[in-house]
Amino acid sequence: MSDWKPTASVENLHKRAAIFADIRRYFAEQQVLEVDTAVLSQCAVSDPFIDSLDVAFRGHPDASAEMCYLQTSPEYAMKRLLAAGSGSIYQMGKVFRNGEEGRYHNPEFTMLEWYRLGFDDKNLMDDVERLVRLVLGIGPIRRCTYAEIFMEKLEVDLQEISTAQLADVMRQHVEVNMDPDDRDGWLNLLMSHVIEPLLKEEPVFITDYPASQSALARIKTNTDGQLTASRFELFVNGIELANGYHELTDPTEQQHRLEADQRSRKQLGLPQRPLEQRLVSALAGGLPDCAGVALGVDRLIMLALQAEHIEEVIPFTFRNA
Amino acid sequence: MAYSANQLKNGLKVMLEGDPCTMQDVEFVKPGKGQAFTRVKMRNLMTGRVWERTFKSNESVEGADVMDRDMEYLYFDGELYHFMVPVTFEQYGADATAVGDAAKWLKENDVCMVTLWNDNPIAVTVGNFVELEVTETDPGIKGDTAQGGSKPATLATGAVVKVPLFIEQGDILKIDTRSGEYVSRA
């Protein structure tokens, strides 16, 4: 085999290691505890559009297989630690997502996830901004709501526009076959295919996502009286770099969202997987008020090194591993 | 043969809207919480239209039987341009629509690339440079190799290009077929 060599240069691997060290130093100075939760779990993430890799565990070589799942983020496990009184924590390690492979995607990648006690989404954006500016050496990061960015880039008023009109706007840019009534689907398409490429000029936090895209963020009423999610995403160079929430702490609402995800999965013909009920129990036990964020470390390194493809910053891609 | 979204790649030929199309700039798009798509810049091989199309991960698209073959240009019979595959001597006749702008640069016995769809020629691509004889131009101005200025010259294929003033009838010229510009004397 002639393809034994790493896809990243040794020079880039030195720079990668230096960024890892910067990140760990930042959290040590902030007195945030490093943790390393299990990557292999009996439960899977509920999000319909995040697909877990499944793994067959056998108690001994002849035993029948128990299906396990490689974690797509350490979120559930870290929240169980928070509920157990860990205080603010961070984790930097491998996570796995099935079906994700491309210039900015490798099915196995390094995620940095952290939780800050007593922070809301705004305080946490300040924290993300400090760390990202430290690594990338960039200036202050603009903040802009989801509704504002749609108005600015597409002249679309999300309070007024119908789903059919959203589909028309999308088709002016890119042709697609999609369920005409799937409003969040059209919003996601416009964000990922049209707006994101227009965010190259300056780094930006997009805040106040629609309540229907809250994932595990709290829902609040904004100044216009609209329900929005306390969720933000960070884009640098038009690349989605981090996703954060003022965390949902209500166990009943958590249970409802897990079940709603499971119902969407069923409607979409996606696999039904065991839900993490221990997360609901942890919230019932008392998740402290906190905000949390997940950041793609390989993408952060790509930005720092101005790499064109994720393969330039990781030792071996999935196809070489 | 049908391709699923994760098999799409640059250069793949597929059927869309009843026409063969080629894929350029294939990119995987997957927001953290959103659906996965494969975004492709498409080119319709019949009309030349270029547009963007994005495919859901569970979508599939029918392949098109399109292939590019190197062929020797033989002659024009007034209706069809005739080409031959050098090794097998198979011959193909292409109409003016398929040949398009390449007609200006087709010289007998030159090798060019013919795109076949279901074994019928739909496009002809000539090399980046071609050498053609000047059949008509104003008399050359001797020694005027350094001065600027240009004049039209008609080439053996009927194409008209701008050439420097010193070029004579009967000269063989090297032309860049992408820009249609004179490069040098051959």
From TrEMBL, chain A:
GO terms for molecular function: ATP binding; lysine-tRNA ligase activity; tRNA binding. GO terms for cellular component: cytosol. Signal peptide: none annotated. This is Lysyl-tRNA synthetase, class 2. It catalyses: D-beta-lysine + L-lysyl-[protein] + ATP = N(6)-((3R)-3,6-diaminohexanoyl)-L-lysyl-[protein] + AMP + diphosphate + H(+). PROSITE patterns: AA_TRNA_LIGASE_II (PS50862). GO terms for biological process: lysyl-tRNA aminoacylation. InterPro entries: Aa-tRNA-synt_II (IPR004364), aa-tRNA-synth_II (IPR006195), aa-tRNA-synth_II/BPL/LPL (IPR045864), EpmA (IPR004525). Residues 16-315 form the Aminoacyl-transfer RNA synthetases class-II family profile domain. Keywords: Aminoacyl-tRNA synthetase, ATP-binding, Ligase, Nucleotide-binding. Homodimer.
From TrEMBL, chain B:
Residues 130-185 form the Elongation factor P C-terminal domain. Keywords: Cytoplasm, Elongation factor, Hydroxylation, Protein biosynthesis. Pfam families: EFP (PF01132), EFP_N (PF08207), Elong-fact-P_C (PF09285). May be beta-lysylated on the epsilon-amino group of Lys-33 by the combined action of EpmA and EpmB, and then hydroxylated on the C5 position of the same residue by EpmC (if this protein is present). Lysylation is critical for the stimulatory effect of EF-P on peptide-bond formation. The lysylation moiety may extend toward the peptidyltransferase center and stabilize the terminal 3-CCA end of the tRNA. Hydroxylation of the C5 position on Lys-33 may allow additional potential stabilizing hydrogen-bond interactions with the P-tRNA. One of its GO terms (molecular function) is translation elongation factor activity. GO terms for biological process: peptide biosynthetic process. The keyword Transmembrane does not apply. Involved in peptide bond synthesis. Alleviates ribosome stalling that occurs when 3 or more consecutive Pro residues or the sequence PPG is present in a protein, possibly by augmenting the peptidyl transferase activity of the ribosome. Modification of Lys-33 is required for alleviation. Belongs to the elongation factor P family. This is Elongation factor P. It comes from Neptunomonas qingdaonensis. The lineage of its organism: Bacteria, Pseudomonadati, Pseudomonadota, Gammaproteobacteria, Oceanospirillales.
